[in-house]
Amino acid sequence: MTPRELLGTAEVPGGEPLRLFRRGGDFMIVLERNELMNSRMSGSEEALAVMTIDRLRTPAPHLLVGGYGMGFTLRAALAKLGRDARVTVAELVPEIIEWARGPMAALTAGCLDDARVAIAHADVADVIADGRGGYDAILLDVDNGPDGLVRAANDRLYSARGLAVARAALKPGGVLAIWSAAKDAAFAKRLREAGYAVDEVTVRARSNGKGPMHTIWFATGR
User: Fold this and answer.
1) How many CB atoms lie within 10 A of CB 193?
2) Residue 82 burial (CB count, 10 A)
């Protein structure tokens, strides 16, 4: 087997470091022993964008994507959106964007330079709190699910208060979409208790319909 090559390490405020590896033509972002992202596993992150946009009624929506990861969600959104749409990407870790423009530039395919894209080098929770009524959709993929795996502070995104703040940041009829590596009945209940109508969808990790099943919650205000 081809050995993994360490390409970079990134400090996460309030969390453990992230490491970028390459094995052959594949890239992996790893937290301790957890592989958070793999360039071969893009299907569910792409579905996060496509299925969210399918639920919107405005022709030129403003999306907030947190965080960038390997850019699968952003690229899928740009491919589906019209030229008047806007996408704000909130990414707390500067090295993630540096890796996208550096060793993963071929994978990035110029999406960060698209005129519709704005990069916020900030905690997505803070961006949400500052965006009252400003977004047609908020797409969250900052952990392996609705808990603070990457950093404990991310727990506030999934708390009752965090869900209320997200509702306030959405325009009428807006969608809060949250990616997870697994189901979480307690979180789905929390979404409903926060006043959302919830559609829970399972999708395959790979774009070819194979791989493990991941979960996406699409939540809209009632």
Assistant:
1) 10
2) 9
- With a cut of 80, say whether residue 149 has pLDDT above it: no
Q: Rounded to the nearest 5°, which phi and psi values hold at 191?
A: -60, -45
Dist. CA 198–CA 193, nearest whole Å: 10
Rg (CA), the chain: 16
For residue 3, which amino acid is it? P
Q: What is the pTM of this model?
A: 0.94
CA atoms of 154 and 148, how far apart (whole Å): 5
- The pLDDT tens digits of the residues spanning 15-40 come to 889 999 999 999 999 988 888 899 99
Quick one: tokens of 89? Answer: 């990407």
Q: Which residue has the higher pLDDT, 41 or 147?
A: 41
Instruction: Report the b/e string of 54-68 with b at 16+ CB within 10 A.
Output: eebeeeebbbbbbbb
Three-state secondary structure of 45-82: HHHHHHHHHHCCCCCCCEEEEECCCCCHHHHHHHHHCC
Q: In this structure, are residues 6 and 20 in contact, taking their beta carbons and an 8 Å threshold? A: yes
- Position 153 pLDDT exceeds 80: no
